Amino acid sequence: RPPAHNLNFGTVWHHALERYHYDDFTESAILDYLRDEALVSKEDNRAHLMAMFIVYCKQHQKLKGWDEFVSAEEEFLEPILHPVTGEEHEYKQGGKIDGLVRIDEKYYLFENKTAANPTGDYCRRINLDRQVHQYGHYLGVKRGIHIEGVLYNVAPKNLRWTRRNKGGHEAFGDYVRRLVVNYGERQFLRFYV
Asked: Fewest beta carbons within 10 Å, which of 27, 113, 152, 160?
């Protein structure tokens, strides 16, 4: 099981993107959110999240500008149907999606991911994630719509987990700026499947 601070890191990253795209918070409001010590106790994590978000905003325009963000963190619980008879089984399929967007009158799941090495290989393999496709089917049933595919938003994990230079008394802002350069060398991906 991953350490608790990693789970917190991912959760905060998801919430920041949800607030930015769906709730229409400004970049500076999100940076204030990520700077909150009560939210993220480790200073290194706060700095990395802020740097990731700054680079993310430089590389991708806000979804509100060209897509309609329909919902975020939507849960569903739908009956499993027999494929031939259509009868309901006693079991149900449930889950939660990161988001639902409408692009040119078509609906797509919006999935946020982080990956150590989001290359073309990663992009080809991600289509093997059958869970996301099942979620699209059941969310489509719940809403009475057809889900066309998935819009993935992939942030690179920092392979060189850069630490703050405490010996040199590096100021927090200088540390974040150094991380922005580090993350800026990596590509944040957005693609459809």
From this structure: 160
* pTM reported for the whole predicted model: 0.74
Taking CB atoms within 8 Å and a gap of at least 24, the contacts of 110-113 are 110/21, 110/63, 110/69, 110/150, 110/151, 110/153, 111/150, 111/151, 111/152, 111/153, 112/13, 112/14, 112/17, 112/153, 112/154, 112/155, 113/152, 113/153, 113/154, 113/155
pLDDT in tens, 68-97: 778 888 888 888 888 888 888 888 888 888
Buried b / exposed e over 109-142, threshold 16 CB at 10 Å, is bbbbbbeeebeeebeeebeeeeebeebbebbbee
For residue 13, pLDDT beyond 60:
yes
16 within 8 A of 26, measured Cβ to Cβ: no
